[in-house]
Design goal:
This protein is an all-alpha fold and 468 residues long. The protein has one domain (4-90, 106-450). It is built from 22 helices and 2 strands. It has helices at residues 4-25, 32-56, 63-83, 98-102, 104-123, 129-144, 169-181, 186-189, 192-208, 214-225, 228-234, 240-260, 263-277, 283-297, 304-328, 344-350, 352-366, 369-372, 375-385, 393-415, 420-433, 436-450, and strands at residues 28-31, 87-90. The chain is globular and about 55 Å long.
């Protein structure tokens, strides 16, 4: 449950993200909801990183540590106020036009579903195995012990079921929440679940507003947020929805960089990519795919600025991710070591799985209306209607990201040592969830082309001021 401490913690997270956003993209005006969503997302990842760095320095999360973080954030905001660097959120009452009234319905749908996620999470905290055995357990360890010296937990092979080498962004976020709330239990951690869900919706909405007006951006956002699989896993206390959130921010700004070549977009894409890599093991391959797509987009036609941008993206991600790489390199790896199986012989030996099991099962899964609503069918239909979008750099980039991401998923299932039926049942809907923001953005951007409309406004990272 949310008490004064946990409410203050969420406020610190959002203010931290607002400071980061302003430092990278300010000063400019931007829509209130777009600013709030990006601030919440950047702050969530930023707090995880900050607490990780502090823990490496020998201090576990505590109220004193959180107070110091809050003081630093407020000092940074005060400095940016003096320098007039802050993002200026604007919120004007919507015109009473039909399309503005129509935009209210998607917002109400997302708000209602956020309440549903919150209620479900509160009623059954810690019921998912991965929640209490992996992410929750790690959070409790990190709330009590810093990473320097290395806690015994991370060397205890009897606890290998909790994946000792998994990234720690979500556990650190929960550890900070435990300390702020005053108790380390699953019920305290549920505060962040509706937060992640609503933030994902706002980040996707902000990305869609780059090309769509209010109600169309809201409609596509509500489609994504309303998927049964999204609502189901948003309240489960695991890392898949946070990963989906950070990946959504990363690809949104990556394709915007490919189109507009604005440095702040590249910086935000790299920062979200770091968060993605530090959230789950699956995040790092997605970052590699994003970097590859940025490089390819710089080759056709050859643009040195674009290739330099791809290089800067990789450099930034590597530098910020290095502390985790160095600290974790000696941890026991007692579970699937997929990297060691990426050999020609290993892939060739199991390649028949691709046609016999993997592709048919993935196809059946994305066709399941009771998991994905009409997302995938609508993507096919709207891509046909908005076929002109395929000539747009940002649309081509998103299609490459989507298809390569699906190819990575298929490859993992081909080489896995697990029984496929067991692994499909355990994980397929969750890993496909990570892909859905790319599908939602493609629906929106093809829709913009189908209507032959250019955006009147755009959000953070645009030449134009935002129409909230």
């Amino acid at each position: 449950m949310m008490n004064a401490g946990s409410a203050a913690y969420v406020a610190i997270v959002i203010l931290l993200g607002y400071a980061v956003l302003s430092a990278i993209a300010g000063p400019r005006r931007a829509g209130l909801w777009q600013t709030l969503g990006l601030s919440a997302a950047l702050g969530a990842g930023g707090m995880g990183l900050v607490l990780f760095w502090i823990s490496l320095a020998g201090a576990a999360p505590s109220r004193a540590v959180l107070a110091a973080v809050a003081a630093a954030v407020l000092a940074a905001l005060a400095f940016m106020i003096r320098k007039r660097r802050l993002i200026r959120p604007i919120a004007r009452p919507a015109d009473l036009a039909a399309k503005d009234l129509a935009a209210i319905a998607p917002a109400l749908i997302v708000a209602a579903l956020t309440i549903v996620v919150a209620v479900r999470a509160h009623r059954s905290p810690g019921v998912e195995w991965d929640d209490w055995a992996i992410w929750g357990l790690k959070a409790k360890v990190l709330a009590h012990e810093p990473l320097s010296p290395v806690p015994a937990y991370f060397q205890d092979l009897s606890l290998s079921y909790s994946h000792l080498d998994y990234p720690l962004l979500l556990p650190f976020l929960n550890a900070g929440l435990y300390r702020a709330a005053g108790r380390a239990d699953a019920r305290s951690a549920v505060v962040l679940l509706p937060f992640f869900y609503a933030t994902l919706a706002l980040v996707v909405y902000a990305a869609l507003r780059w090309k769509l007006d209010r109600w169309r951006a809201g409609a596509v956002t509500a489609l994504l947020a309303g998927m049964p699989a999204m609502v189901r896993w948003a309240g489960a206390g695991i890392a898949d929805v946070p990963l989906t959130l950070f990946y959504a921010g990363g690809i949104a700004f990556a394709v915007r960089w490919s189109d507009e070549r604005r440095r702040e977009d590249l910086a935000l894409a790299a920062l979200f990519a770091v968060y993605t890599a530090f959230t789950k093991a699956e995040g790092l391959p997605l970052v590699v795919v994003t970097a590859a797509v940025l490089a390819v987009l710089g080759l056709r036609p050859l643009r040195l600025q674009a290739l330099a941008g791809a290089g800067a993206f990789v450099t930034g991600v590597v530098l910020l991710h290095l502390p985790w790489i160095f600290w974790s390199r000696g941890l026991p790896r007692t579970h699937e070591d997929y990297a060691s199986k990426l050999t020609l012989e290993g892939i060739a030996a199991k390649l028949p799985r691709l046609g016999h099991d993997v592709l048919p099962t993935m196809t059946a899964q994305v066709s399941a209306y009771n998991a994905w609503g009409g997302l995938w069918a609508l993507l096919v239909a709207i891509a046909a209607l908005g076929w002109r979008g395929f000539a747009r750099r940002h649309v081509a980039g998103l299609w490459m990201l989507l298809l390569l991401h699906l190819a990575v998923i298929a490859l993992v299932y081909v080489i896995t040592p697990w029984d496929l039926r067991t692994l499909f049942a355990m994980s397929l809907d969750r890993v496909l969830l990570h892909v859905t923001p790319a599908a939602a953005l493609l629906i929106g951007y093809h829709w913009a082309e189908a209507r032959a409309e250019m955006p009147r406004t755009a959000g953070v990272g645009s030449h134009r001021e935002e129409d909230p």
